[in-house]
Amino acid sequence: MNRSDAPEPAFDALYRDIVLDHYRAPHGRGELRSVSARAEGMNPLCGDEVDLELSVGPDGRIDGVRVEGRGCAISVASGSILHDLVSGADAGGAQRILDAVKAVLHGGPLPADPDLGDFEALEGVKKFPVRVKCALLPWTTLDEALRDLAARRKA
Amino acid sequence: MTATARPALDVAAIRREFPILATEARGRPLVYLDSAATSQKPRSVVEALSDFYLTSNSNVHRSVHHLAERATTAFESARARVARFVGAPAPECVVWTRGTTEALNLVANAWGSRNVGPGDAILLTEMEHHANLVPWQMLAKRTGARLRFVPVTDDGRLDLEAAHARLAERPKVFAFTAKSNVLGTENPVAGLCRAARAAGTVTVVDGAQALPHGPVDVTALGCDFFAFSGHKALGPMGVGALVCRREMYDAMDPWQGGGEMIRRVRLEESTYAEAPIRFEAGTPAAADAVALAAALDFLERCDPAAVHAHEVRLTAIAMEALRPLGVRILGPEDPADRAGIVTFDVPGLHPHDVATLLDGRGIAVRAGHHCAQPLMKRFGVVATTRASFYLYNTEDEAAALADGVRAAVEYFRR
Q: Tell me, what's the pLDDT at A2?
């Protein structure tokens, strides 16, 4: 069987070096000193689970993000990038980032504002519709964690 | 059954009957290793489907006109074809369903609701597909019955000692798969059914993976119910059957109500048609049933025992080529006990990434939990990669799998 060992160029667009760097050494794996909100996400397609915890400081800013769970390169990298983007934001800012990320994964262009940092490297996932769910998983979990945060504040 | 006892399949000739196998995926020749999810369909099946709609289309069991008669005859011949293929004593033993899932739900409802009560035990196994777990969980919740499970050994087999011990507790029903969709394990169905019968336990066999890949004889197996899907056995999606021991009909209540399954309907109450029609409310997938008969014709021409031997050969090739790559293959060591299915975990690589990179080489595999989350948990994994072979796969394709996995490992090491 005559098969080239070179991967398809499309795969290099999916698995960019930045993505693999995040996958190999994901950010946001440390325990938080206090947990202000949490949520569990699941991809029913593969059974991958994400545990997401947020801690919020007295100034209302997110000063800790923990993203835990086993996943594919895309979902792990996406969670690691989530940690980087959301750290330091307040709930409203985190929501804005979340909305922007979702818009990009649903086919929209990369916005100038908010700055999505390394997330730009995950844009290639759009060409693989079944993998979009992998990239979304940490973010839909963040969505729930933010709702949990709002609910706890009310209580 | 040994690999050498039968003449080899003429795979090249078989492949010519499956036009889709000559297509490309991502610019490479398609290597379809996902037949355990759904098989490809030969030309004769697609033609039977279109022939029905082009020449015989009419509702069945209703009108008296010419086309209705044609359609009904074809539909009922298909039922007889299924009965013959599975060794059932009569066509009346075959209830058409949408597939295995609906067949299992039918048993859990039509038989289960009448016969299972508070405190009764429902015996299942740890290797079941969600389709053979969830309907029983729902029945247990409805009736107050208890669920019991036969554990799976480290090498991916049913713990038979435990199975016999659990059967000695005389559960009402024992529902188990004839062949695991994840491990490929072929369970000793006849022996388990014998032990169940001695305990007065009704047996329900999930045949979704067994029927496409080897000979099936429900009479020899001695089961009370046998469920399967057409689409994994070269047939169309949306049709399958529940094969019942005829005596079981007396212990079942109608499940879904509607047209066709009735005898006389009054405003306040109705009487019902005889089985199997009693369990077939509404217009059936008649064209699909007729096409399924064509699929079974095709399988029989190839000889199910030869198909099985071919799959054992491909499984052996794939397992041997994968082992040096350090992957963990789940399930029995012996390819003869797991024909056609190789499920594995590549350390450090997620199955989705493995599958995406294989896809880049035109190789289609399944990545995920394979609708068997409890079994994944049993083996300490969330998801795995599954390659599955069928009568149209070649030895080159089995070898290409390992080449692709090696390339994926190297790609991630870059």
A: 39
SS3 at position A96? helix
Spatial strand order of the sheet with A48-56 comes to: A37-43, A48-56, A62-68
**Cβ contact (<8 Å) for B382 and A47?**
yes
B287 closest CA partner among B41, B62, B102, B74:
B74
Which among B353, B383, B404 has the least Cβ separation from residue A47? B383
* Percent of chain A whose pLDDT exceeds 70: 94
Which residues does chain B have within 8 Å of residue A26's beta carbon, measured at their own beta carbons?
none
Q: Do A47 and B376 touch (CB under 8 A)?
A: yes
Q: Which residues pair with B265 in a beta bridge?
A: B270
**The domain made up of B11-32+304-412 is a member of CATH 3.90.1150.10:** yes
ipTM score: 0.83
Residue A13 pLDDT exceeds 90: no
> Which domains can be identified in chain A, with CATH numbers?
18-154 (3.90.1010.10)
Give, as one character, the DSSP assignment of residue A31: P
Gap from B141 CA to chain A (nearest CA, Å): 23
Q: List the single residue in A with minimal CA-CA distance to B399.
A: A1
Partner A contacted by B28 (CB < 8 A)? yes
B371 is catalytic: yes
pLDDT in the model for residue B342 = 98
Assess whether pLDDT exceeds 70 at residue A6: no
Q: Do residue A3 and residue B400 have CB atoms under 8 angstroms apart?
A: yes
Report whether pLDDT(A8) > 80.
no
Question: Cβ–Cβ of A47/B352 closer than 8 Å?
Answer: no
What does the alpha-carbon distance between residue A141 and residue A145 come to, in Å, rounded to a whole number? 6
CATH for B46-300 (3.40.190.10, 3.40.640.10, 3.60.40.10, 2.102.10.10) = 3.40.640.10
Return the bridge partners of B228, or none. Answer: B241
Say yes or no to pLDDT of B164 above 70.
Answer: yes
Mean pLDDT for B1-23 is 82
User: pTM to 2 decimals?
Assistant: 0.92
Among all chains, which residue has been given the structure tokens 């800012």? A93
Which residue bears the tokens 């699909």? Answer: B288
Domain residue ranges in chain B: 11-32+304-412, 46-300
Which is the catalytic residue, given B93, B244, B302, B371?
A: B371
Give A63-104 pLDDT, tens digit per residue. 999 999 888 999 999 999 999 999 999 999 999 999 999 999
Residues 6+ apart with CB under 8 A from A155: none
